[in-house]
Amino acid sequence: MMNIQLETIPATRIAYVRRTGPYGPENALAMDLLKQWAREQGLLQGTAVIWGIPQDNPANTLPEHCRYDACISLPEHPPVETSVPYGVLPSGTYAVVTIAHTAEAVQQAWTEILPALSRSGRTLDQQRPVMERYKEDMVNRHLCELCFPVLE
Fold first, then answer.
1. 94 close to 150: Cβ distance less than 8 angstroms
2. 1 pLDDT more than 60
């Protein structure tokens, strides 16, 4: 039984690297490029949070058109000159699940979360993406969080 915590995530300014293609191991390439850029900008430290955001549902988007964004939260005064686009993560209520940072744990969470949300009377918000959240202290323990948007 998974432990689901409800959390209101505020709108967050981000920088991101987008990869288009089938979801899977290649998403790590976008993450590596983002981390390299963030290191060069002095952003990969302290309270920086890394996000992984699959933008499309592979059930109704061809694999070659699926977009994955590797993102990092930005400080109040982000770099001015940048080769990486900026954006904003949408605010709202999310059902947050902490899992092992493995493909198997991610797959299991996806299998279990929708029935668990339904049992709790919550509905997935189809207008916002599901997000992977990586905080430094959790990454050091090989954990990540999946943040499922729910209707309020």
1. yes
2. no
